[in-house]
């Protein structure tokens, strides 16, 4: 009886787990982040990379210090090996310190797809802008 109950419980848990997370079977997730300052105080970007077959979907936020009058730009570069395939930028200009982002990056026609995303964030109050260290995230 215990074996049957365990088997039934396991089957239900497996079924629920597979239906609740309705993402493509080949999709995997990574967290991403980048900061202007080494201490990660001030401007930053963070979120989730969902790796798809040939592209990736990013969702998250761009954050800038509240009350500053300059814009902040997050730069996202997609690579296949050492070849840059695509670039997306998101700039926060308004008075709201947190801006939501969500987009797809990469080339859906590229055989093999992308395998790395480089993330960097820059404060645009200086010329040239002051940028944090580039962060790389691999499939």
TrEMBL record:
This is Secreted protein. Keywords: Signal. It comes from the Bacteria. Residues 1-27 form the signal peptide. The keyword Signal applies. It comes from Kribbella pittospori.
